Amino acid sequence: MSVKKITSLFITALILFSMFGTASAALPGYGEELQNAPSSTSTVTFTDVPTTHWASKYISEMASRKVLEGYPDGKFRPENQVSRAEFATIIVKASGLQAKKVNYSSFSDVKTTDWYSPFIEAVKDYMTGYRTADGSYIFNPTAPALREDITVALVKLKGYDVSRLANRSIIEAMFKDYAGISEAAKDYVAVAVENGLVSGYQDETFRPQASITRAEAATLLWRAYQYGNDNKSVGGGNQTTTTTPTPPVTQPTSPTTQQPPLPVKFSVDTLVGGLGKGQIDGPVRQAKISEVQSMVIDKDNNIFFLDGDDRNFLKIRKFNNANGTVETKTIDRTFDWDYIADDKTVTHLDYSKFKPQKLAYNGASNKVYVGGTNHIDIIYELSPVVQVATYSSDSNGKFDFIGFDNHQSLTFGVSYYGNGSTKIFQGEKGGQASSLANSKESTGVDLLPRSIDDLYRTMSDAIIAEQAIYTLNTYNKSLSKVQLYPRKVETIATFNNIEFDCLVAHEGKFYVASGTTIYEIGLDGSRSIYLDGKDLTYNDGNPINKISQLSFDSNGNVIVYDDDNKAIRRINLV
Fold first, then answer.
1. Alpha carbons 544 and 287: distance in angstroms, whole number
2. Which of 102, 112, 313, 373 is 20 to 30 A away from residue 487, measured at CA?
3. 215 phi and psi, to 5 degrees?
């Protein structure tokens, strides 16, 4: 090692000591990741791995634990390269993750019928995919597993807090090829080196883009799960890092020696947007979003959204899940309609005056609706053809919610700032809706904010039950119930201790986003954390700061609108 390199490492050690009182971990020596072999002697042997082979003990140990397997001819082939699919399989078996057969794939180049599909789905939060030029997300299952990819996966699986522990100066001093480590991987490599998971080579390189052999995979996995130190906290005071070997991964029949359960993480993919503000249609690689004001998803996972930063000029847009493109539904003469009042007065509603406000989706009929104003408050069915679904004779209201009961009637709430009321209507297809409730008459719930500036910033939704309507909104944060027969209005619960950024009703419950955390609220007022924002990992490296719109796809994944990144994104739960 050169004098310059030694000096640099010495300075790094001094910095660590001055910051934490004691160094958080003893820096490994070059090549240490391939040392400290298992002390036990395993009975699993392979014809091409003699006991004199440098990795024989690692291979035998990991094979005995069913993490690695040989070939039917009795060979292990230690020098064969490991593909990304093979390494996904290896870490599932080593870590205790559950590989389950799924009927979907998170990656366009992985079919659900591929043997490695369940393993790749199990590790998608730990092994990153790649976004291609056409916007698709791929895994590259047959490509070689790279050292930096594997390092990232090991650090994530071990649960180290990269945001607090990473110190790049260590690896910058240690490795001549530091610049060759991908920017997104540098923090993970730094944490892995500090905690003894990897150490690089004797020639002072890390070789981040190098592939690994089956023998090296056995060694790295053994070191990470049988020997690597598990102190994930930042050093300080008298705290030191233990070098006690971590308990080995064993069969489920020996729970006392199993690894502690790994934290559940959920990966986030960008479906469309993230390319700056705009209203550009086309494939996702070029499509842009301005500001999503309302969003629904149909059974085919097509995403319909109202887009625009001026509520008087919102566009109805659609992300087509089948071909990965965005298109705009033109508000044209199909939205023209002649409104007949009092069975005699005819008013022509010109399409150019229609201002969309709220989208809704009826899963039973697989139809999308849009509510808005055009002289009167009106709801259109958008597919298969545009036609009037229902309307009220009132005008200039703000649509709070649109829902459907078991009889397929449309129930919708509209707030009127001018007269200070919220009304709930129910209408049949094509006919005028009748009034069910009116907050001003104490027969309904008040969803109005106190300031007109908050009117369109306030988000509401409702669950339509057989004899009651449950509402929740982001302004008063109150879960209310309007019992229809006999009429009774009550507040079930108020949630003043959390901030409501957006909400949605889904399958009989409300889901509220506060920052990046999503709460589930039952009709009895019970509240629990559905998804903690700290458990999100980002496949494209762009974090979400606040969820501005919220919905669910047909697979049970959460679809959100991230206004900071101008992107519609998917949180992969299944």
1. 19
2. 373
3. -65, -45
Give the Cα separation of 107 and 143 in Å (integer): 14
Buried b (16+ CB within 10 A) or exposed e, 156-188: bbbebebeebbbeebbebbbebbeebeeebbbb
DSSP string, 244-289: PPPPPP--TT-GGGSPPPPPP-EEEEEEEE-S-B----EETTT--B
Residues constituting the chain: 574
SS3 316: strand
Centre a 10 Å sphere on the Cβ of residue 411 and count the other Cβ atoms it contains: 20
Predicted pLDDT at 18? 31
Cα–Cα nearest to 544, from 521, 574, 519, 518: 518
pLDDT under 70 in the chain at which residues?
Answer: 1-43, 132-135, 225-264, 342-343, 406-408, 574
Alpha-carbon distance of 268 to 104, in angstroms, equals 16
Handedness of CA 18, 21, 24, 27 (dihedral sign): positive
**What is the per-residue pLDDT for 451?**
76
Distance CA 41, CA 59 (A): 11
Give the pLDDT of residue 59. 85
Q: Where are the beta strands (DSSP E) in 363-441?
A: 367-374, 376-381, 387-392, 398-404, 410-416, 421-427, 431-432, 434-438
Strands of 478-483's sheet in order across:
460-464, 468-473, 478-483, 488-494
Res 240: pLDDT: 31
Q: Which of 241, 139, 255, 263 lies closest to 197, judged by CA? A: 241
| pLDDT for res 231 | 35
**Could you tell me the two tokens for 264?**
């559940």
197 within 8 A of 155, measured Cβ to Cβ:
yes
Tokens standing for residue 154: 């090991």
310 by DSSP, 3-state: which? Answer: coil
* pTM exceeding the 0.70 threshold for the entire prediction: no
pLDDT value of position 264: 57
pLDDT of residue 521: 94
**Which tokens go with 401?**
């919610």
Residue 494: the pLDDT is 93
The pLDDT assigned to 226 comes to: 56
